[in-house]
Amino acid sequence: MPNKLTQDAVLFCNKGAKTSILKVTSQSFCRAANKLVATEKDKQPEINIPNFWSCSITQSSCNPAPIKWKKTAEKDAINNFKILTDASTCQCATGGKITVQYKGHDEIHEIN
Fold this sequence. Notes:
It comes from Flavobacterium psychroterrae. This is DUF4280 domain-containing protein. InterPro entries: DUF4280. The protein has strands spanning 10-13, 20-21, 31-32, 35-36, 54-55, 60-61, 66-70, 77-78, 81-82, 89-92, 97-102. With 112 residues, the chain is mainly β. It has one domain (10-102). A hairpin with a 4-residue loop joins β5 and β6 (60-61). The chain is elongated, with a radius of gyration of 13 Å. 38% of the residues are buried.
């Protein structure tokens, strides 16, 4: 079962040079392990998804361009936005694929 993503989840882009830390701004009241739960709305470049340092496609600094989160929770939502899980991925308009390396918390909060 997938686990909810929270503030401080570690993200990885297969075209980036470093990992990035997710910041949740889509909501301020739903928590797991005392951290804000992430939703599909958390995809703003440099606000929710900081850059991955450099991009192997452009051969220059990374300018994240997230398109849409996929593999979100099927049934769970916050403010009508689907919850992100450790299985979620996000395509970058530049060509990279953003995946989750760490869900952001140590407690298990499974999504049914």
